[in-house]
Design brief:
alpha+beta, Diaminopimelate Epimerase, Chain A, domain 1, globular, 17 strands, eight-stranded mixed β-barrel, 2 domains
């Protein structure tokens, strides 16, 4: 069986930055095992398989695989696949606004895509779930050991480690400085008691010290248990991060926007656009967006 595929760089407006994504077209004839093999072959954070939508009014059904397992939802595959489908429908280099409706394991997502002649496509979607707190993390000394840091480098202001989930669960670990976050790593056998044993997708580290003055947070995300040692940009974690921001920053009712920079330590600079609404002092809605660019096309045989 020969299938065509496209590669994208997501959460960036230029090639060779952001988070790479492989999109396999016409994947309806593949088995689960074949999809996993192909994802392992691409060896990217995620590979998307496009299948016919169950509802003919929708654009496509997506299945999302890391090199090790399938995910019910992920942000950068949603943004990248929607941008690609919109360009395929309206053509590259055109001005158009599109609504791409994607069926994923977590549910149906409606993605708005803005196509402009002079810029990369921008896709944005409402998160299918509002993040909720999801369990208690181990003590700070255990988390610090798992990341190769010292306990005093964990936390800033009133921010402390928490766990939030919106389909996928992540540990959110505030780090005191750019210097500390730059030296963080998956620290051998100390990683498992800190994160793996909690059933989390990964650890999302963040600090307010940023590369760009337009960014609100500088982050890194490690997910070795999903086959992703480090991710250049993580949309699903950014969704959950809104829960931590709303909790610790105690923001007023209204809509708030934050630019999140990620992937800089990997030489894959990425910018994730996060917007969220607070109503009655509670998180009511979360929206994720970003640019995507095409990198290549090809075929794969299986």
């Amino acid at each position: 069986m020969r299938l065509s595929f496209s590669t994208m760089d997501v959460f960036t407006d230029r090639r060779f930055g952001g988070n790479p994504l492989a999109v396999v077209h016409g994947a309806g004839g593949l088995t689960d095992a074949q999809m996993q093999i192909i994802a392992r072959e691409f060896n990217l954070s995620e590979t998307v398989f496009l299948l016919p939508a169950e509802n003919p009014a929708h654009s496509a059904r997506l299945r999302i695989f890391t090199p090790l397992k399938e995910l019910p939802f992920a942000g950068h595959p949603t943004v990248g696949a929607a941008a690609l489908l919109a360009e395929n429908k309206f053509g590259q280099g055109r001005d158009a606004d599109a609504l791409i409706v994607l069926e994923e394991g977590i549910g149906t997502l409606r993605v708005g895509v803005r196509l402009r002649k002079d810029s990369a496509p921008f896709a944005e979607f409402d998160a299918p779930k509002v993040p909720v707190e999801a369990g208690i993390l181990p003590p700070v000394d255990v988390l610090a050991a798992g990341l190769g840091l010292i306990p005093s480098e964990i936390g800033f202001e009133n921010h402390r480690p928490v766990c939030y989930a919106a389909g996928n669960a992540f540990a959110f670990v505030p780090v005191a400085s750019r210097e500390a976050i730059a030296k963080a790593r998956i620290n051998g056998s100390h990683w498992a008691p800190a994160f793996s044993e909690q059933g989390l997708v990964g650890a999302y580290l963040y600090t307010r010290q940023c590369e760009h003055t337009t960014s609100s947070f500088h982050v890194r995300m490690f997910a070795p248990d999903a086959g992703v040692p480090e991710d250049p940009a993580t949309g699903s974690a950014a969704v959950c991060f809104a829960g931590a921001i709303a909790r610790f920053d105690r923001l007023p009712d209204g809509t708030h926007r934050r630019a999140i920079e990620q992937g800089f330590e990997m030489n894959r600079p990425s910018i994730v656009s996060l917007a969220f609404s607070i109503e009655g002092q509670k998180l009511a809605n979360v929206r994720i967006g970003g640019h995507s660019v095409r990198v290549g096309e090809g075929t794969i045989e299986i």
